[in-house]
Amino acid sequence: MEMWKVPYAKEPFDLKLNLMLLAKKWWVLLVSSILGVLLVGGPYFLKHVVYAPAREYEMVLDFKIDYAENSTGEEYTYFNQSTWYQLLKDDVFTDKVLQYLQADDWAIVDNASNPDMESSLTKEDVRSFMEGTLLSDTRIVTATVRTHNPELTAAIADALEKAFYDFGKETKEIDAIHTWQKPEQATLVVRDVRLFRACMLGLILFDFVTLLVMLCKAVLDDSIYVPSTFEKRYQVPMIGCYSSTKECAVSAEFGVLARQYLDKNTILVMIDEKIELSKLNQALKAEDIEVHDLIKLADSALNSRMTDEEASRIREATSILLAVKSAGHNGRVIEYALDLCSKLGTEVSAAVLVKDEKNI
Q: Which end of the chain is more exposed for a tag (fewer CB within 10 A), N or C?
């Protein structure tokens, strides 16, 4: 058979067969899932739980700002969100807060309660602890104080409140500042740790890539798993299945089809040297079919030279039976055997599928 006659482009994708083959590889998906959870969820757990920074405590304060009026009778409105954010980072606030902390003996911080901070409380530390913004109303400033020590958080919040009052007195654009909200104590900041989502993300990503690779391998796989695939691809009848590991070696239809397609003297062409054919020969003898000759065309035959004697035996053959190993990734060798027999003048009469349950 000329290779251009092999209709690979028209061969349908056997979804049921490939799903069954994928189901037998369930352990691959299991390993992929475990690796996904470990390789994605593991680093996330280490970063956000094991090696997470020290716990933080915060207090959120709201201040009502009464702005003064300019010469035209309009309120000053240039204190926007960015302005208040920057003001709380500038010396106008940090110096005041640090001054009140020193007055309350908070200038020296206990290292045991906050090992991440140096013993001397500096202006840079105060800047990192405070943040101001406008959430909706330009007249209400929301200030957040966050540290690793609940007592220090409360002390900075008290100092910040006093600094706001001083700022209102010193700024002509502001008439008065009122405290609208101030918690009694600092609250623990709850971390947004999404370990389950990270694990599920790793599992889905790894399983998706694994399934994609397995499907690509299934599409590119040229192995024969069932007789119908061989017949659709090569237009050569397959007379049955043969197993060298079971007592009932051949399939039920083997005898009837063997008598239909094979002569009494048949040449057996084998494309895998590891195939054990004793039970197949017995099954053929039971149907009064004698294997007249055996020709081995193993994988190495693609790079080896066929002898004139072997070629002569194929030319003189009246029927040829091709033994095809199941799940052998041997499409190229099958094509070689069919093409060689066709060029020598004798088409392959039939084929038999040799099953190896370990590889299926």
A: C
